[in-house]
Write a sequence for this structure.
DNA sequence: CTGTATCCGTTCCGATACTG
DNA sequence: CAGTATCGGAACGGATACAG
């Protein structure tokens, strides 16, 4: 335990160090992973079950073909989704969550719940402070 | 409930829709907010209690003065932290979490716990797939 | 001590065109 | 259907210098 934390209560220490940990490196690794605007939404969408590329493209609103491909490639590389190619004409490719991928859903839910509860208030604040610039 | 979700089980529907919600807009709002590399670390650091600008600069490893200022200004604008200026020489400015800011800690913990559990495996996968650069 | 202003390279990502 | 390739604008963020 680092000296600065000696006087914190156990619960505070647990909070602080679990998040800040190794100088934030572990947390930043996952943030780098999920914070690219699309990853979490793709994972959440795949929580429904196996989906084809085209289905994902339809169900994740606003994602471009390029970003969907890149996102899925990263998720596959990290072992969060599986990619199954069927040698048919026309081609069919199916994506599904691995157990590791599924395990990301509950933390994502916690974040989503927080967002649903607090984002409206945050946006109201922003609107108050920048009356001209709102949601485009 | 949208037509595509009619046949999902209630729990699946709850999962999917709580995350994907309004086309992912609410979730993306908070992701845009916390995914800027520093916000979550600053919030986690402030979980200790009130801190001065210089303390934060020391305790968040690697953050630049500029990014700390910008991050704190955004958090203040969104009502997650308070900023208190004391008219002294030299000046003293203290930052603290608001209740809304504190409420972000538990979801952040859930994410951090996931990262601590799974990031090592993910990095091992990446290392396997990119063994070395420059092998002849 | 607590910032602001400016420069500037890097990364992100949308649009578009093309392919098996 | 399921990608890949390329371009270019925009945003991110580090370094540095300057200021109240």
């Amino acid at each position: 335990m680092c000296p600065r934390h000696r006087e914190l209560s156990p619960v505070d220490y647990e909070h602080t160090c679990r998040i800040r940990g190794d100088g934030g490196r572990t947390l930043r690794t996952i943030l780098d992973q999920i914070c690219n605007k699309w990853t979490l939404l793709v994972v959440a969408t795949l929580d429904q079950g196996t989906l084809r590329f085209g289905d994902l493209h339809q169900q994740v609103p606003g994602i471009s073909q390029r970003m969907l491909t890149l996102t899925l490639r990263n998720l596959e590389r990290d072992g969060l989704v599986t990619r199954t190619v069927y040698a048919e004409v026309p081609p069919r490719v199916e994506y599904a969550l691995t157990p590791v991928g599924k395990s990301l859903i509950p933390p994502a839910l916690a974040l989503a719940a927080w967002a649903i509860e607090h984002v409206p208030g945050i946006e109201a604040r922003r609107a108050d402070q920048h009356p001209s610039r709102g949601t485009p």
About this structure: The longest strand of chain A covers residues 81-86.
